[in-house]
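Troubleshooting entry. Yesterday's outputs looked truncated, so today I'm pasting the complete records for two proteins to confirm everything comes through intact. If either block looks cut off, that's the bug. Protein one:
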Amino acid sequence: MRVLLDTNIIIHREASKVVNQDIGVLFNWLDRLQFIKYVHPLTAEELSRNTNTEMVSTMQLKLASYQPLKTEAPLHQIVKDVSSKIDTLPNDLNDTKLLNEVFCDRVDILISEDKKIHKKAAMLGISERVFRIETFLEKIIAENPELVNYKVLAVEKAYFGSIDLQDPFFDSFKEDYIGFEKWFNQKSNETVYVCYNNNVLSAFLYIKVEDDTETYGDITPMFERKKRLKIGTFKVTSNGLKLGERFLKIIFDNAIIAKVQEIYVTIFDKSQEQTRLIELLEDWGFNLHGIKSTSSGEEKVYVRDFNKDNVNSENPKLTFPRLSKTSNVFIVPIRPEYHTELLPDSILQNEAPNDFIANKAHRNALSKVYVSHSRERGLAPGDIIVFYRTGGYYKGVATTIGIVESIKQNIKDEEELITLCHKRTVLKEENLREFWNRYPNYKPFIVNFLYAFSLQKRPNLEKLIEFGAISSVDEVPRGFKKIEREHFEKIANYSFKK
């Protein structure tokens, strides 16, 4: 595998100070899998322009450990067309030249943290070959489970006072925030969400509910009076396992329980790690509101409207987990052996939690994949899915509500099916191949959905028949089945009634 590394990856790998803790994990995987690490001539050129001559000399020496591209592919006309629409700066064109090497098959993949590169990759139709560090690690872990040696990886609640403040995990907070250690110690009796990977702290989340009497004199523009959930401290360093999405689910769940009108976070954008977190938040509906002035400097303020009537059916991520009141509703079966793997928060009481650990990307992800041969294929973004765990009259239960994000039909071959599904489905590659070839004249399609709610009280098949969602024991759906809104409301009222 020929892997082209963008300049930003080289800089973070070879810098004297670690600014992205996932770099080591990335290079460990590249070496273990014996991938060839390439650099473009433009990288050496870009590094040579640094005003720090000592750093330039050091970097030039370190570049010798990478394979240089000895020739450059002529810029393809399609790439030129995309470049003319997007590129405005000289560096933009340099990035396009890196993409051109992928487009022309001179290299297999490109790894870059540059947002504009990924936008152009999507326009060129090569997104599946252009990765961020995080998405590359997801791909590798999904494809090489036998090489992954993760111990228990689960989110847990802890007290501030039980966490080692001297852990290197907190170094970036200490650098960014004056008085961080004092603030941390004052919170000793308050709870946080944490995740450890092989006994190393990998994720940390502190949230706080603020009522409408809170004052925000240091935020410009000033906040209106509302009940809010504040994301006080949020950091994820363990990549490849979708922990960021796992923690977003915790944030949204707490926002629902607290019945807040908004969620907000204040964050610097000094580092690549912070930029990546901002991009994740933006993907899930957070918008830049303004600036917070502090003794440590000016932070950006990002806000997420959490009004229950605010629903975006075309892009449900932006208003997740709110459900449309007008969209169609479908019920679909999922077999027991796949159920908890794909929908971990919907684990049944008779399943031992110790036998289940969230150490796979498809478990932690909020955005998931369901592969189906269903004859009913008329789903659309914003539609609601009720997942029914099969098991008969008394043991079969509805457990989960999902929101359709997108549909992918007319899949050309099994390789495309595997590419589209990896990381977000419970099905292994051999399962997907078997699934593709099961009905030669009737190929599967993909439903990308968002994992919204686990039902608190779960109606069994007997109840589902009573509610009208399923007509009889003999009519349990084998694929997607559209149900009436009134039937869905009966399920929801039964499941969430206090």
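Protein two, checking that the full record survives here as well:
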Amino acid sequence: MKLSLAHAPYIASKIGIDLANAPFVKLKKGLEPVIKKAQEVIEKDVKNERALEERVNELLEEKEDEIEFMQADVRQLFWMIKKKLAPEYGVILNTEERYSDLSHKILNELWEEDLVEYTVNENQVRGVIFRAIEGYMRSFEEIEDAVLEKISHYKRKLIPGTEEYDLIFERLYEEELRKRGMM
């Protein structure tokens, strides 16, 4: 599953909560600044990937006639070009490596902003951040399914894509996150 801007606040919240619950980490200025800083780092990473994908799409559009003539697989070309340009945009495509890199960046930012202190090796703290990201991403589909199930039992039929549907979905999603201790 791909990181998205919509997930950034929830992942950041889980990181903040997990750090707050770690016995070897002290949040020097409280939970909110930690969540805010983690969200900024995640959003920057997601925006870098978005910029990369936009560039890949531009390149594919420029060569559209040739691609059509050669009957090439556009999806395969997309991934090949994305893989080639990823280092240029600072995007790591391997999921585990990406979460590890994000963990490093988040911890560095938290340390530089004097938001945390810890009494253990920094690898243990990065591990907390890594597991928070990984845990959220693993349970995302499960949480979404639970929310969709709840919506399906509403007496009134909600239409996906409407403002009312989106508001109810978001409220139920956050409720489900709270139940699981992720928010």
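Both blocks look complete. Sanity check on protein two: The chain has a mean pLDDT of 91.
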